[in-house]
């Protein structure tokens, strides 16, 4: 990803030991046949070191933290972010604390009794009190920029712009950054300009952005208690939901939700037709694409790219956490 460093907000060279490399983009003729389309491509982010696209975001934000003299970061995670932070932080000699909902307790994390949003609020409170940085909040302007490199790669690998891109959504920033990366390649005259429509997918049990799109409102209404097995997308209060909605509408795309059962079908189709085993969030993307194709919203004869955000088992569901605490700063202070 560092081949695109000129577009990234770093002053000096990056210093992450694990290689966050260019991930494959390839034609998926088997899945295309299953979905009934002519020209389908898959962008497989599961090939990153910790198994998800989060490595791009974490690598960039940790390098920026290092440049700013920040030695300790904290974050809340439903899986992918936490794995990436645990994998990458030691190489920069940065101390990292990862909070996860108790239902996703795993080794090297602190389990919080409550939802992701409660864990995230606790991370912010602790950081403010101790002068730490919240990786995906305090450093969010840098963190989110890492997602642009997916757009850079899609444009470079294809040598042109695809007509349609489908991507799952949690907090809502990734889909916009992919589009921004594509537009930066156009602005630099590296690819010819052409329309690109963006499509966002969420699980039905936690789909605040999709609901807002379908209701015609500008901002998502938070969901306090998500009910989905797609833990990677279980963000009830998406911080960049407003921007995701604006992008979907401006590019002529749309948003769709699918049930957990439909997402599992998407995983099965990826494995059966292309031999790819991904996380359930990518199954959401495939299943949502099918719904959009079947409804005629996604044309069967135009180029479509599906972004697969991570490989199978990137969400930690086993292991002993460092501790289990209530979602309060007092509980955290007693621990550390």
How many structural domains can be distinguished in the coordinates?
Answer: 2
- Summed up, the helix count is 12
Strand content: 5-15%
Structural class label: alpha/beta
What's the CATH topology name of the largest domain? Answer: Rossmann fold
Q: Tell me the helix content.
A: 25-40%
CA(first)-CA(last) distance: 35 Å
The description of the largest β-sheet is: 6 strands, mixed
Mean pLDDT: 94
Name the strands of the widest sheet in spatial order: 1-2-10-7-8-9
Describe the structure.
The structure is a single chain. The protein is of the alpha/beta class and 336 residues long. The chain folds into 2 domains: 2-52 and 148-308, Rossmann fold (3-Layer(aba) Sandwich), CATH 3.40.50; 54-142, 3-Layer(aba) Sandwich (Rossmann fold). It has helices at 29-35, 54-67, 80-88, 116-130, 140-145, 148-158, 173-187, 208-215, 241-250, 260-274, 280-294, 329-335, and strands at 25-27, 40-44, 72-76, 95-101, 110-112, 133-134, 164-168, 197-203, 255-258, 304-308, 323-325. The strands form 2 sheets. Strands 1-2-10-7-8-9 form a 6-stranded mixed β-sheet, with helices on both faces. The protein has a 5-stranded parallel β-sheet with strand order 6-3-4-5-11, with helices on both faces. Strand 7, helix 7 and strand 8 form a beta-alpha-beta unit. Helix 1 crosses helix 10 (260-274) and helix 6 packs across helix 7. The chain starts with 24 loop residues before the first strand and ends with a helix. The model has no long low-confidence stretch (mean pLDDT 94).
Keywords:
Rossmann fold, 6-stranded mixed beta sheet, about 325 residues, about 40% helix, 5-stranded parallel beta sheet, single chain, 11 strands, alpha/beta
